[in-house]
Amino acid sequence: MTNPSQERYSRQRDLVPPERLAACKATVIGVGAIGRQVALQLAAMGIPWLQLVDFDSVEESNLASQGYLQDDLGRPKVQATADLCQQVNHMLEVHSLNTRFRRSMEIGNVVFCAVDKIDVRRLIWDAVKDKVDFWADGRMSAEVLRVLVAHDPVSRKHYPTTLFAAEEAFAGSCTAKTTIYCANIASGLMLAQFTKWLRRLPIDPDLSLNLLACEMSCSPQA
Length: 222
Fold this sequence. Notes:
Elements: H1 4-8, H2 18-22, E1 25-29, H3 33-45, E2 49-53, H4 61-66, H5 77-88, E3 93-97, E4 110-113, H6 118-128, E5 134-141, E6 144-150, H7 153-158, H8 180-198, E7 206-210, E8 215-218
Parallel strand pairs: 1-2, 1-4, 2-3, 4-5
Antiparallel strand pairs: 5-6, 6-7, 7-8
Helix pairs in contact: 3-5, 3-8
């Protein structure tokens, strides 16, 4: 008889090395549109340990744009996401922190950043850059997305160049125009880069996609 745990991941085994995945602890900072989808995909993929960090609660505007459920209204986003992740994979060890990111936090060796302010990204990067093996940052505005990865000396040197000063950012909130399908694509691209890293394949450290124009651009592989 086939071992149920082996059968569960049989179709991804050649693409997601189980031994390397088993050694990963993933922290998702920000579980809005992109971060929530990243967490759910990590749970389905079989990440053994998952940490969710976000101080926000579910509002009505989050239902369509971030995929939260009607029954989640008013709940902390980390708790709502953690519950669904454990429904996806009951073997997952998940920790939810309903608070803002703090430098003193213990985090995993893999970090997915999905916050909505450039100055917060800089703060988090400065705090964790020497502690993580793999870093992925997902950014989105309407139908335009950008995925950045830092995992080696070249990409770690490039990433800080994308952290422009807060006063140079667009005056409105980057979440003012949000679509669930763009968030899903962004999270999928982040996980695709993660699985490349697991397989020790070349990674695109800076990838942009404009869904409306059907244009994709990426930096040289690292």
